[in-house]
Specification:
The chain contains twelve helices and eleven strands. It is α+β, with helices and mostly antiparallel strands. It folds into three domains: 15-85, Uridine Diphospho-n-acetylenolpyruvylglucosamine Reductase, domain 3 (2-Layer Sandwich); 96-199, Alpha-Beta Plaits (2-Layer Sandwich); 201-294, Alpha-Beta Plaits (2-Layer Sandwich). Strands 4, 5, 6, 7, 8, 9, 10 and 11 form an eight-stranded antiparallel sheet that branches. A hairpin with a 4-residue loop joins strand 10 (238-243) and strand 11. The protein binds flavin-adenine dinucleotide. Flavin-adenine dinucleotide binds next to helix 1 and strand 3.
Length: 329
């Protein structure tokens, strides 16, 4: 049996933090985020009571769904002290992993969108743009960025001849190059590690801010174009990577270590956030809202829901002692 959520930060993070942030990850495209894999919780409330919500069953109709209220609440409503997770049987068959290269992220995003609606059901569809590949090559001493502008790392469990044929057909249709498929376990582990090393590679030696928008899949490719245009317009180098299969992109903007954040970075973030909301995406897919993004609550949630969030916070934490100023402002 296994617990499915697989955040890139798995070696660095804890299950409490994963629940508090509703962490997603590389296999969310098939198995969902943390919220889809938590059945029950014990939570210590601000007044000291310990409550149990949810349980061990896959279904429960009694009461409101407080389990899902606490998952993703970023420690602002209670302290999670026990977690009952869903375990899944390990799928039969040999998993297949692969890499495919594209001219740019827009073509990659179109391929990902087509794969997602094809019935192939990949377990992983991770994207890295040209800037990220250059950083990774530097970090890993590889040469992936030599001949392409975007890289897709994918995994399929329990494949059939038919699903593999459909996948290959779609990769060809969207002009993927140098496609590599492997069932070799060490090579698969190396590809997963390559994906995990993406952030340290980009962050190395520079100041950075990494964002976390999630788009409806139909807007993933246009968003890639838009982020590229914002970078050009403001003279910024934007690294784009992320969980493309979920429509979740992590644009990272960097600037020199000893310098303050340039104003152009703020402008870029504002433009990307506004476009995300205009296209019915979310500004925060999985990395929490925290203190940096909660000024966008009203824009993302709307005034009525924003007010309701404050009422829930006031009910559960009337003295504001649990992670003050995080998540809601
Ligand atoms: C290299 C890297 C890769 C990443 N990849 C991903 C990814 O793929 N997907 C993803 O979703 N995120 C990712 N992240 C972001 C982050 O690691 C995750 O969101 C992770 O879930 C945070 O867990 P943590 O244990 O580090 O929590 P912390 O940072 O320690 O805590 C996060 C918040 O949760 C609260 N909290 C922690 N424990 C509890 C508890 N028991 N009860 C109540 N509140 C609690 C804390 O107070 C804090 O507000 C990545 C980060 C890095 C650095």
């Amino acid at each position: 049996m296994f617990y499915a959520p697989d955040p890139g930060s798995k070696p660095l993070s804890g299950i409490g933090g994963n629940v508090a942030t509703n962490a997603g990850g590389m296999s969310t495209v098939k198995y969902g985020a943390t919220k889809d894999n938590v059945l029950g919780l014990k939570v210590v409330l601000a007044d000291g009571r310990e409550i149990k919500v949810g349980g061990r069953t896959l279904k429960q109709a009694f009461g409101y769904n407080l389990t899902q209220l606490f998952v993703g609440s970023e420690g602002t409503l209670g302290i999670v002290t026990e977690i009952t997770v869903k375990l899944l049987p390990i799928p039969l068959g040999t998993p297949i992993m692969g890499v495919a290269f594209f001219d740019d992220m827009t073509k990659l995003a179109k391929a990902v969108t087509a794969i997602r609606i094809s019935g192939v059901y990949p377990t992983m569809l991770e994207a890295l743009d040209g800037n990220t590949m250059v950083a990774l090559d530097h970090y890993e001493h590889t040469t992936y960025s030599d001949n392409s502008g975007a890289m897709l790392i994918f995994k399929i469990e329990s494949s059939t001849d038919e699903s593999m044929a459909v996948l290959k057909e779609l990769l060809q249709k969207y002009e993927a190059q140098n496609v590599e498929l492997t069932t070799d376990a060490p090579r698969q582990a190396a590809l997963e590690q390559l994906r995990r090393d993406m952030l340290p590679a980009v962050f190395a030696g520079q100041n950075h801010i990494m964002e976390d928008m999630a788009m409806p899949l139909s807007k993933l490719a246009p968003m890639m174009d838009y982020i590229h245009d914002v970078g050009e317009q403001l003279g910024l180098k934007i690294y784009v990577a992320g969980h493309a299969g979920d429509g979740n992109v992590h644009p990272t903007i960097v600037w020199p270590k000893d310098e303050a954040m340039p104003e152009a970075v703020n402008q870029a973030l504002r433009l990307m956030f506004e476009k995300t909301l205009a296209w019915e995406g979310t500004i925060s897919g999985e990395h929490a809202v925290g203190m940096l993004k909660n000024q966008w609550n009203n824009a993302e949630l709307g005034p009525d829901v924003d007010q309701l969030q404050h009422q829930i916070k006031a009910l559960l934490d009337p003295m504001g002692i649990l992670n003050p100023k995080r998540k809601i402002n």
